[in-house]
Amino acid sequence: MSLLQGSSLSPYFTAALTLAQRTHQQLHDAGSAFQSVPFDLIIIGHALATSAAVRIPLLRRHWLLCFWTAFFTGYGGGTLTSLLLHDHFVWLRNDYVLLLFALCWWVITYSPYDLGNRLYSFTPIKLLARLAASIARTGVVISRIDGAVRRFGKHSIVAPLFIGTLGGCGGRLVLDLVLSILAPSAASRAELLYPSWLSRSAFLITLGYSLTVHWTACCSSQAAYGAIASFLMAHSTWEVISRSPWDPTVPLSSSFHSLLCIPFPPAALSPSRHHSSPPHSKPHATATNSPSSSQPPSHNPATGSSSLSSSSQRSSREQDGSEGTHHPDLANGKDSTRSGATSIREKAVKQRKPKRA
What we know:
Blueprint: H1 2-5, H2 10-35, H3 39-53, H4 57-60, H5 63-85, H6 90-93, H7 95-110, H8 115-120, H9 123-152, H10 158-182, H11 197-215, H12 221-242, H13 250-260, H14 310-320, H15 328-331, H16 336-352
């Protein structure tokens, strides 16, 4: 420090250090403010946002399956990571978690005259719910990382990265599993096939928190909480106001695939997505014959599902207030594979009928 004081870099170093300390204090105050929000309000907002995102006609036919699918979409990450950490589920420790979620789910899914979903479609209500969901997601990811460090040691690398990422996107995996059983055509849009904003942001948040708080200890946990929550809340605010998905992790994903020479997922699995050719692909190459000739499709941040065309997104949001979780076959409440099989059986029956003399 004494060497820097006598050099020309001393004023710049002092100004940068002062700015860093001031920013750290502001983030610390923001983290304290976010953590002071009542837990009941966070549960209600998180339940409303999750129930609206999972409001799919195919699931609404079976109310019990619809409820547990929506619940584990919202709490699947925390539940799965609790199993890994040998911890009690938060919805078993606190009775009001499940009860409040059930009430919010009914209001969004089955309220008379669809009043709950109509009220949720108002921008201020949807924005507050999404902000609460962002705070809830921040708390889940950070608590899972801290729990992994306490259990496996401060110098553990794989455990906090895996458990923190799973805590941030585990609910989407549960939803993909249920939809793949009800409608096999929806399996082509699963998160494991097309990693989206949900899984990428969960990994980046986990990596940044582990690096700054546990591995280098250059930032306090409270300040990191404020930074992560502010980022997720800004992302939710932009999506609600602009009414379009936004994935700031796409450039990082493109760089990852380009640097490591890992091909993008084949476009043939999802014909309804929009694809663009990467810089190194040939201009005349098509998406069907070149696995690396398409960029990963855009995804919805709330649930991690892929985004469809702009017109289908607007119609799906106007229909039931979901945030991009619709699939083309599920929006009509049917599965294309089943309808195709039905048409084949009908043709076979017609051919078997005896011809009239």
